[in-house]
């Protein structure tokens, strides 16, 4: 997995609540058997019209946000399905960090597995960052995972919380499965006990 | 011993490892797999030279992509869908996991097949690369959706890296009124708590109205726990649960049945267990409901009118404005006057036999409104066969419904069953998101009986007028 340490980039404002996974990547793109190549279809139905032409008003179609690496959004981001195609599409587009007041559970987890950092901050702070994002290429937001901070171009600094284990994995780019397999003995022992206690499982 | 909730008990019984920082490895008893969220996980295993740790606990079935028209026995026409289903065929074979191929009579929506075949049992941990895995919580199993990376993790290690969630109790007291169903309960709860109200929690549903539900109804309730933001929904197992499970192909038998039963009977929340959040609804207060917007929390009794954006606060004002625009509705418009084009009865929320019975009871001897498109997609081949045996299929066909083969179908419209832009659908599924049932399609969620009533009148309809 790609490491995430520091990021300084343009943030795209998407001030909607309940942005669901069907909006992030509609189902017609879930037929792939690969993880890559989904970026062009990120937010497909908001981004393109019925004839597949770009809708100029949509934030990621605006020239100043085409290279956005951060997304600032409303409450309950990523609700809906468990499709990991959502973070795959986000990552493939080039976005590495999402800032919102809250995230849906499964989506939040999925981000960490793909080198994306989701940051939950209080609404007032997201409001400040949303304003900042509206400045387009005139403002870069800085994210420092080690220090757990987000800073605006004006020098305002917000601290965020992140689970220590998730932080560690993201900083080091660690593969979860490899880490868990180091605990194979514990799993073996559990299975042996399970076979005794609940043999029907 | 300190008192525990049902969730605490299941959690404790599956804790394989706990690190100092509180990160846990939860052992997984059943891993359900479907074609859309698994190809990349199997690919990952192959690339790393890993195997499936517990193939005996891993069950796969194609459902999301499969066509539901009778000609599917001849093969899947859409190339991408076919490739995905073929990939599942191959992965199931290569890794030696249990498999129900597309033309097996036991094939169906993964969350219907699991319980039907007795894979889902009380007290288990169940995961699937699908958010509606919460359905299995109806058996008192800790069941939740996971992403593809986690699918790969479970395949390789039979565990999941987890932190414990918080406990939330949703109590539905008293009795339901006539015409009110499990779907109305679960939608009303989301209307009350919002789609993020359960985030970080595992919900246990309890109370007289829940106890009174059949297993099918309980599955409908738990199915939509995720729509309320919760990782999982649970209902403590009781005699109804044991009765449902008994004799199923993969349920324990003989002495093992007795041993299992003895343990299952300990699976309930202790009286003085601690709850981080409690929500109580009176069964008598729940009405037949429909959704009017593009989030499952946008729910109102069928007797109500479309709300005004100014009735809301914060970010919801804009969201409602956008939703009404998308849905083509005006504030103040009576919900019962909203005309529909399509009716979809099916999905893992409401594609079980009891759902088909409830819809057929309304449709018996009636015809659907002229010009309407209506389809029933049974949740599994076995549900379909049973409905045919009970004469329900004939009722649907005579009423003008299409009688389909099993699959997810128009719940998410990955197969050819889709809405066209602006088309309005009365649906028994679980999500009314923008574009969910087809680009520009408009979805109103409701119970099977309500969907059947809407099919007859051609508009959103109070089922109580037809009872
Ligand atoms: S029926 Fe719908 S919600 Fe259920 S598993 Fe299929 S697509 Fe998902």
Please provide a written account of the structure.
- The complex is a heterodimer of chains A (201) and B (467).
- Chain A has 201 residues and is of the alpha/beta class.
- Chain A has one domain: Aconitase, domain 4, CATH 3.20.19.
- Chain A is built from eight helices and eight strands; from the N terminus they run E-E-H-H-E-H-E-H-E-H-E-E-E-H-H-H.
- In chain A, the strands form two sheets. A four-stranded antiparallel β-sheet of chain A has the order 1-6-7-8. Chain A has a four-stranded parallel β-sheet with strand order 2-3-4-5.
- In chain A, 46% of the residues are buried.
- The model of chain A has no long low-confidence stretch (mean pLDDT 95).
- Chain B is globular and about 55 Å long.
- In chain B, helix 6 packs parallel to helix 8 and helix 13 packs across helix 15.
- In chain B, the strands form five sheets. In chain B, strands 5-4-3-6-7 form a five-stranded parallel β-sheet, sandwiched between helices.
- In chain B, 32% of the residues lie in helices and 16% in strands.
- Chain B folds into two domains: 159 residues, Aconitase, domain 3; 177 residues, Aconitase, domain 3 (2-Layer Sandwich), CATH 3.30.499.
- With 467 residues, chain B is α/β, with parallel strands linked by helices.
- At the A-B interface, helix 4, helix 7 and helix 8 of A face helix 2, helix 3, helix 5, helix 10 and helix 11 of B.
- Iron/sulfur cluster (SF4) binds next to helix 12 of chain B.
- Chain A: Heterodimer of LeuC and LeuD.
- Chain A: It holds the Pfam family Aconitase_C.
- Chain A: Catalyzes the isomerization between 2-isopropylmalate and 3-isopropylmalate, via the formation of 2-isopropylmaleate.
- Chain A: It catalyses: (2R,3S)-3-isopropylmalate = (2S)-2-isopropylmalate.
- Chain A: Keywords: Amino-acid biosynthesis, Branched-chain amino acid biosynthesis, Leucine biosynthesis, Lyase.
